[in-house]
Specification:
The complex is a heterotrimer of chains A (340), B (227) and C (542). Chain B is mostly helical and 227 residues long. Chain B is built from 6 helices and no strands. Chain C has 542 residues and is mostly helical. Classes of the chains: A alpha+beta (340), B mainly alpha (227), C mainly alpha (542). The interface between A and C is large, with 87 and 94 residues.
């Protein structure tokens, strides 16, 4: 019954090698100080017990001693702070060439979309050895994306995209938990992260899906009529979106911002403040799409806008190119894929 | 029984249990009032903080919503409160100088100012009600100004009603306290030796006025600079 | 008041000066209010403990077979609300502080006795409203009320729970107000700030937090209630609100609230360690200053609850380094208590055992605080059982141990009876063991990755969870024993002398139980606190 009794979580991503050493150092510090205090108290309590030491000797205190035991712990604390901060920084912006995966969280499930169209629920397939960046948004309350084996956790907010990244180092199947309390089935909002060999991953990708995210986004781009203004020809009434993603945007009030996922989402949903109109374009003639585009459609639209990057053919540069040969060789790899 | 400090001394009828003498009683009560006002400050501070965060985030909507404030009533109310602070200060001075009975007219005038403030505030609320600007009760807002989001305009009104409502609640409590002071003063309860209730109610009254002195520019005025 | 010349038996004191329910419900005597508080928080403690028991029983099996997910969510929410707002925050200040603080400053009562009574009524009204929301259906938001779940998605009694907590908040503000005014203005002649007992210093620091922090959480919860009732967006992102702003407002109070729970406990430990080793405290100024430093720095660390919640990387750095700075004064206190034992004359009475327990468990709680303050490690352990274990080491291992130590220490003063020493030592031992068996496995669970607030869990976590549940049942026995023997001792305990521990504390320099106005004559203080060398005549008589 209790055969499975681990005391240390699996180490399956790059961050485990950053977090675990600090954790072990902290354990050493904690053991050193707590054993030190316990021993000192025990020795004093025995040596100076009333029956053998009835008369207390009064000691006022000592500045030197106080300074010592303030400054040494302060030094240790600052050392831990710097170490902890350096680990924290490594969690920062994902590497440029990371594999991009998009997902939404809602009560009580996780939905992920691979860049070329594979959709899955409560499962996330990733290749081993490659940087993976997962961009997430919630449709309702705050959730938290937590993969203990990767030492990765990030709250998923309802009003903006946040991106978490990791580089799996070991194949296998690992827990995915929601770590921010989100209601009745909080404990049921769990799933699996499946780390696969790259070849298996490619085969899995190729085995399902109905067109890439970007191609679904392109359909929406037509459906919502975006295309009638955002064009590259003379009749355009809005900026051409090719190369928009990652570019610096200049507003009419002279400020700038970088067009990331949150920027694109905010611009689509609107409303857009008058002094934050893109320089050179007519004042807000774009409709407000709040309430018309759901979070999954939004991800597709953004994928499409991003695909316009350097590539007029609308092919997502991030998407791995499916290998026909490989697909034929290994058709059975794909686990359950839920088609929406 | 004997306790060391007041053995033989004539105890003042207003001296209460834990205190040695009237001076200690007055100092303690004043300190207590200041500490209490510090609590109040933190309470309004949380609201001011939320207001400033949202005003920065949603500037155009807050600007637009702020134009729907009634500047006239707001300004008149500010003047009314400043006058009430003056009469309150005069009343406290009268109490300190031992003119216990003259406290009464000053307090009555202060009361009238306080009621005038609340009356005008009620008129203002009524206008908002008619204009469908009360969130949660058929809130409607249309604006042709680009960049204005109705949800964020509503957020302004939510904060407006909570901040001014909490202030009005404090005014109501203040009116109750001033009424109590007026009754006690008319019975000749306050003397040069004992008048700390008058001082402390005065402190409270000034504090509530001061909150309005910040509310008025924040809600009514600063956005008009951007017209 | 009795005239000293007429020596009648039995002597008149605050308990027998008047009888009947009215004399208790309308009392303004700080000692009686302290007793009223003690009865109310004991009731709340056992209610909260009952919820904890159900939680632990449910977690015996990975599937969580005992209760449904909804019930479980309500259980941990109500456990948190009841324990935090209705037991831990008022425990040492409102019971022990109310009873001994005026005596420690040599005053006849609190500065504002009526406000003190009002504080208790606020507490009782708040507790009644909270119990009402529990009985009619409970609340399932977690004690943290995170938005937008609490404002929009939860279908439970959020509004009435918030109202209950608001009343408890007012009661806490009134207590803090009284502490500050009493310590500033009612000190006995000769009792300078540097002569004050350390319990006063730590309660003063606590009162500052109560005064400055409570109103902010009050306003945050009012905003949640308003948003919930009128369906208007304040924190709801669908209407442009910001859910993370709520977290800022909430933790601005609720982190300092941790120090409201632990600072008075530290004050108790300073009293116990000095009394039972018959020594001056080592480094009086440093222990006193550490209390104030904790209160001040405590207001600047709230963001460390939000390292993964979406705050900027630079504010995370700031909150992390501030958290390390606030750890130093806590460490200084532990070192000073330990050094105080050096060359003392130590007796192992029950209160001292609790003090040892406090120092050990608080040390572990504090050291694991270094883990969660380290940005890199916090990403992995936040919102897991590691955090649960960490704060239970501080709050249960720290505050509850100190509260029990204080109850035993001042019991003779409160009721004029001694508690049964043998039983008390036994239950102190049971609590220490039970506590560690309950909560130590949770550190391991946390690093393994078991998230908190999970009704069911992955099967590999079961062994540690069963250990934890086993420990909880030991702990439950440890908590029930004192309830029984302390009630027993009210009638059958040995009659206590005025100063059974031979303490130099001002509160012991009057009869047990004290008269209504504490001292027959206003005492005059001429020496530093804990001057045991000058008082060889104050001997252990117990």
């Amino acid at each position: 019954m209790w055969t499975d009794f681990p005391l240390w979580p699996a180490r399956a991503a790059n961050f485990a090698d950053r977090v675990d050493p600090l954790y072990m150092f902290l354990i050493a510090v904690a053991v050193f100080f707590s054993v030190g205090i316990f021993l000192t108290i025990t020795i004093f309590a025995i040596k100076y017990r009333r029956s053998v030491h009835p008369q207390a000797e009064q000691i006022e205190g000592s500045l030197a001693v106080e300074a010592t035991w303030s400054i040494i712990p302060l030094g240790i604390a600052l050392f831990i702070f710097v170490w902890g901060a350096s680990v924290y920084f490594s969690y920062g912006a994902p590497p440029k060439n990371a594999l991009r995966i998009y997902g939404t969280a809602k009560q009580w499930m996780w939905k992920f979309q691979q860049a070329d169209g594979q959709r899955e629920i409560n499962e996330l397939h990733v290749p081993v050895g490659r940087d993976v960046a997962v961009t997430l948004i919630s449709q309702d309350v705050i959730h938290s994306f937590f993969v203990p084996a990767f030492r990765v956790k990030m709250d998923v907010l309802p009003n903006r995209y946040r991106t978490v990244w990791f580089r799996p180092t070991r194949t296998g199947t690992y827990h995915l938990f929601c770590a921010e309390y989100c209601g009745t089935s909080h404990a049921g909002m769990i799933g699996w992260v499946v780390v696969m060999e790259p070849a298996d991953y490619e085969a899995w990708l190729a085995s399902g899906g109905e067109g890439s995210l970007a191609s679904s986004g392109e359909k929406l781009f037509r459906h919502f009529g975006c295309i009638s203004c955002h064009r590259s020809d003379k009749g355009a009434r809005g900026p051409d979106l090719a190369g928009l993603y990652g570019r610096e945007i200049h507003f009419q009030d002279g400020t700038t911002t970088v067009a990331d996922e949150n920027y694109i989402r905010d611009r689509i949903l609107g409303p857009r403040p008058p002094d934050k109109q893109v320089a050179g374009w007519q004042r807000d003639i774009m409709p407000v799409f709040r309430g018309q585009v759901n979070e999954e459609q939004m991800l597709e639209l953004i994928a499409y806008v991003k695909s316009l990057q350097q590539n007029p053919l609308n092919v997502n540069p991030n998407a791995p190119i499916p290998d026909e040969e490989q697909r034929k060789r290994n058709p059975q790899v794909a686990p359950q894929v839920i088609q929406p | 029984m004997s306790h060391s400090t007041e053995a033989g001394a004539v105890t003042h009828p207003a001296l209460q249990t834990p205190y040695r003498d009237l001076d200690q009683q007055r100092e303690t009560a004043t300190l207590g009032m200041f500490v209490f006002l510090l609590t109040e400050l933190m309470m309004f501070g949380g609201l001011f903080c939320a207001y400033l965060v949202y005003r920065t985030l949603y500037f155009p909507s807050f600007l637009e919503a702020s134009r729907h404030m009634d500047l006239t009533i707001g300004a008149v109310n500010t003047a009314v409160l400043i006058c009430s602070s003056l009469t309150m200060a005069l009343g406290v001075q009268a109490a300190q100088q031992g003119r216990g009975k003259t406290v009464v007219p000053y307090m009555v005038v202060t009361l009238l100012f306080g009621c005038a403030f609340l009356g005008l505030k009620a008129v203002e609320y009524y206008h908002h009600w008619h204009a469908h600007e009360v969130p949660g009760f058929g809130f409607e807002f249309t604006s042709s100004v680009p960049g204005v989001d109705v949800g964020k305009v509503q957020l302004f009104f939510v904060l407006y009603f909570i901040m001014t409502g909490l202030h009005a609640l404090h005014m109501l409590i203040g009116i109750g306290l001033v009424t109590w002071i007026t009754i006690c003063a008319s019975k000749g309860r306050y003397t040069r030796a004992y008048h700390n209730p008058v001082e402390n109610v005065g402190l409270y009254w000034h504090f509530v006025d001061l909150v309005w002195i910040y509310l008025f520019p924040l809600l009514y005025l600063i956005s008009r600079m951007h017209l | 008041m009795s005239a000293p010349s007429v020596a009648v038996e039995p002597r008149e004191h605050y308990l027998n000066v008047d009888y009947g329910i009215r004399s208790w419900l309308l009392t303004t005597d700080h000692k009686r209010i302290g007793i009223l508080y003690m009865i109310s928080i004991t009731v709340m403690f056992f209610i909260g403990g009952f919820f904890a028991t159900l939680i632990r029983l449910n977690l015996m099996t990975p599937a969580g077979d005992l209760v449904s997910a909804d019930t479980y969510n309500k259980l941990f929410t109500m456990h948190g609300i009841v324990m935090v707002f209705f037991f831990l925050i008022p425990s040492v200040p409102a019971v022990i502080g109310n009873f001994v603080l005026p005596m420690m400053v040599g005053a006849r009562d609190m500065a504002f006795p009526k406000i003190n009574l009002l504080s208790w009524y606020m507490y009782v009204i708040g507790a009644a409203i909270t119990l009402y929301s529990i009985i009619v259906g409970g609340v399932d938001t977690g004690w943290t009320f995170y938005t937008p779940f609490s404002t929009t998605y939860s279908n439970t009694y959020v509004f009435s729970s918030i109202v209950g907590i608001l009343f408890a908040g007012f009661s806490s503000i009134f207590t803090g107000l009284n502490f500050i005014a009493t310590i500033h203005k009612l000190r006995a002649p000769g009792l300078t700030w540097r002569r004050m007992q350390l319990f006063l210093w730590s309660n003063y620091a606590t009162a500052v937090i109560m005064i400055l922090g409570t109103p902010v959480v009050a306003i945050a919860l009012i905003l949640v209630a308003v948003e919930r009732v009128w369906h208007i967006g304040i924190f709801n992102p669908a209407l442009g609100g910001d859910p993370v702003l709520f977290q800022h407002l909430f933790w601005f109070y609720s982190h300092p609230a941790v120090y409201v729970m632990v600072l008075p406990a530290m004050g108790v430990i300073s009293e116990l360690v000095t009394t039972f080793s018959r020594k001056r405290i080592f480094g009086y100024e440093f222990v006193a200053a550490a209390s104030i430093a904790i209160a001040v720095f405590g207001f600047l660390v709230w963001g460390h609850h939000m390292f993964v919640a979406g705050i900027s990387i630079y504010s995370a750095l700031l909150f992390s380094i501030m958290s390390y700075l606030v750890a130093i004064p806590s460490a200084v206190k532990v070192f000073n208590w330990t050094a105080t034992l050096y060359k003392g004359a130590i007796s192992y009475r029950t209160p001292m055992l609790y003090a040892f327990g406090f120092i050990g468990l608080f040390t572990m709680g504090g050291l694991t605080g270094l883990f969660v303050a380290a940005l890199g490690v916090d990403i992995h352990v936040t919102d897991t059982y590691f955090v649960v274990a960490h704060f239970h080491y501080i709050m249960v291992g720290g505050t509850v141990m100190a509260y029990l130590g204080a109850i035993h220490y001042w019991w003779p003063k409160m009721f004029g009876r001694m508690y049964p020493e043998g039983w008390a030592k036994l239950s102190a031992g049971i609590i220490f063991i039970g506590f560690n068996v309950t909560f130590f496995p949770q550190f391991l669970l946390g690093y393994l990755g078991m998230p908190r607030r999970y009704h069911a869990y992955a099967s590999e976590f079961q062994v540690l969870n069963v250990m934890s549940t086993a420990g909880a049942s030991i702990l439950a026995v440890g908590y029930l024993l004192p309830l029984i023997y302390l009630i027993w001792s009210l009638r059958y305990g040995e009659i206590a002398p005025a100063n059974p521990w031979g303490s130099t504390g001002l509160e012991w320099q009057t009869t047990s139980p004290p008269p209504t106005h504490n001292f027959e004559e206003t005492p005059t203080v001429t020496e530093e606190a804990y001057s045991y060398d000058k008082h060889p005549e104050m001997e252990f008589v117990a």
